[in-house]
Amino acid sequence: MSVAFAIEIRSIRIPAQQRNAGEKNSNSRRSRNHPLPLSMADWDSNASRGDSNTMHTLIVIGSGLFLLGFALLTGNWTSAGVSTAALVFIPVWLALSAVNLWLGVTRAGYSVPEELPILAVVFAIPAIVALVAWWFFRTAR
């Protein structure tokens, strides 16, 4: 079964009134360069960044699934068991997803409210797969 996820990332801009004090139209594209929103009217989609952000999100989700597979194999090879490895993976993945959020805020310039839905998606997909693996392997030891 193949599932495709498309996440549209929007960049938030507000008018920089101090820099553009002489401009009469504060909604012009040049004046919208501050990262915090004042209202819903200040939302501005940025199509050139959307594709790379969607790809980054898919890469992070794929990395989580790969890390989960590695954890499950490691649990199978050790005495811990696959179900224990699946449960240990969840807090580890939450910490790594939080690092991804932190990098999005500090390096990519997004605000925390912009990154929280991405954190939810990035964390939830591998965590749900880990819970399914735990449920499936919990009695088979």
Round the mean pLDDT to the nearest integer and report it: 75
Percent of residues in helices comes to 55-70%
Structural class determined from secondary elements:
mainly alpha
Task: Enumerate how many helices there are, as a single number.
Answer: 3
Q: In whole angstroms, how far apart are the ends?
A: 27 Å
Shape, per Cα inertia axes: elongated
Low-pLDDT segments: 1-34, 36-48
Main β-sheet, in a few words? 2 strands, antiparallel
Number of domains: 2
Q: Please compute the radius of gyration using only Cα atoms.
A: 20 Å
Estimate what percentage of residues fall within beta strands. 5-15%
Element order: H for helix, E for strand: EEEEHHH
- In spatial order, strands of the major sheet run 1-4
Q: What's the total number of strands?
A: 4
Structural description of this entry:
- The chain has 141 residues and is mainly alpha-helical.
- The protein has 2 domains: 12-44, no CATH class; 46-137, no CATH class.
- Helix content is 58%, strand content 6%.
- It contains 3 helices and 4 strands, in the order E-E-E-E-H-H-H.
- It has helices spanning 47-77, 82-106, 112-137, and strands at 11-12, 14-15, 32-34, 43-44.
- The strands form 2 sheets. It has a two-stranded antiparallel ribbon with strand order 1-4. A two-stranded antiparallel sheet has the order 2-3.
- Helix 1 runs parallel beside helix 3 and helix 2 packs antiparallel against helix 3.
